[in-house]
Amino acid sequence: MTDVDFTIDKAKLEQTRRDPAPERESIALGADELLLAVRTFGLTANNITYGAFGAPLGYWNYFPCEEESRGHLPVWGFAEVVRSESDAIEVGETLFGFLPMSSLLVVKAADVEASHFHDASAHRSALHPWYNRYYRCGGDPLYDASRADLQPIYWPLFMTGWMLAATYEASGDHGAERVYVTSASSKTSISFAHAMAQRASHPSVVGLTSPANRGFVEGLGCYDEVVTYDELGADGLRGPAAFIDMAGNRRIAALVHETLGDELRQSTLVGATHRDASPPAALPGPAPEFFFIPDVAEQRAAEIGRDAYHAEFAAAWRDFADFVAGHTKLRVGEGPDALEAAYAEALRGDLRPEEGLLVRLQR
Would you give the end-to-end CA distance of the chain in angstroms? Predict the structure, then answer.
């Protein structure tokens, strides 16, 4: 396939441009630098969030463009080392990590270990280390070739849901008897509900979703109760409760906060799957706390050691991957045309919750 450089107008995400990527041999590499060819990546609502919040959260800074007004949208996926100036990493290795939605990427390998290394490129030195880590599939205990197609779609979202469940457990679930979760059909919400269901005891997890997605959410079997947004009234909210907002929906957040009042013990803001409905500036009850998985994951790894943390995550991932494989319909597009079509579909929000969308740029 022809290498492509796919860029997006930072201010108008629907405006894209597709240019030929530079010839691979023409790209200058310094000491310890690698040229990666992006092989496969996943596209979800999470990637669109990277673009929508690219400026305030710094996502455009990971893969900068020469034109300041344009950016490379970050995705998660697999890449192959096609050129190497590192003594520790050979051509042909497969890596997993944070990639641009384009064909080629140069990284500088540092702190190389059997399972991972850190990108020490100068422009990424001040960026979050969670995004700068690349996993070497040959030495990564999480990697399973039979579940490899699920990894680019779910890996970061499962870590978010899994660690959110862990923090709730560590806090005694904030004294809540019920946990209301918006966007129950989203992959992060499913990850949280699945992780909660693995516990011997836990508060009732109530998935909030649209009527169109109710059947899918109920079929998952990981929520204790499923309620549609149009059914959610004041008489249906009971405390003591916690609220996890994956949608960023102003109306739902206000309803939950105003109805529960002092009976709302915790409010957690994780995402904004409803891009056209941001939360209000002020709400009654507890102020929403933003859950940022890069910070939480790095803190946990510092507490118990990175290898121990990754081993915990790998074990949890294997169980989740087996579960979610039965609820995911993979759809794979190949080449630059498929990339452009897949991005447009994700931007419109047309993906069905049971779908897992992959784009392959290298065979």
Answer: 8
Token pair belonging to 159: 């870590």
Give which of 218, 170, 167, 164 is closest to 192, Cα–Cα: 164
Domain 154-294: give its CATH code: 3.40.50.720
CB proximity list for 169: less than 8 A, separation 6 or greater: 199, 202
List 207's β-bridge partners, or say none: 181, 226
- Interatomic CA distance for residues 358 and 133, integer angstroms: 21
Residues carrying CATH 3.40.50.720, the chain: 154-294
Question: Whole-structure pTM over 0.90, yes or no?
Answer: yes
Please state, in angstroms and rounded to a whole number, the distance separating the CA atoms of residues 248 and 279. Answer: 5
What percent of the chain stands above pLDDT 90? 88
| pLDDT tens by residue, 153-194 | 999 999 999 999 999 999 999 999 999 999 999 999 999 999
Tokens standing for residue 169: 């457990």
Encoding tokens for residue 188? 């992060």
DSSP line for 273-330: SSTT-PPPS--SSSPPEE--HHHHHHHHHHHH-HHHHHHHHHHHHHHHHHHHHTT-EE
The Cα angle at residue 85 between residues 84 and 86, in degrees rounded to 5:
90
Strand pairing partners for 257? none
Q: Distance between CA 346 and CA 218 in Å, rounded?
A: 24
Residue appearing with tokens 């990424």: 124
The pairing of strands 33-43 and 104-110 is antiparallel
Sign of CA dihedral 58, 60, 63, 65: negative
Domain formed by 4-141+328-360, architecture:
Alpha-Beta Complex (3.90)
CA distance 271 to 275: 9
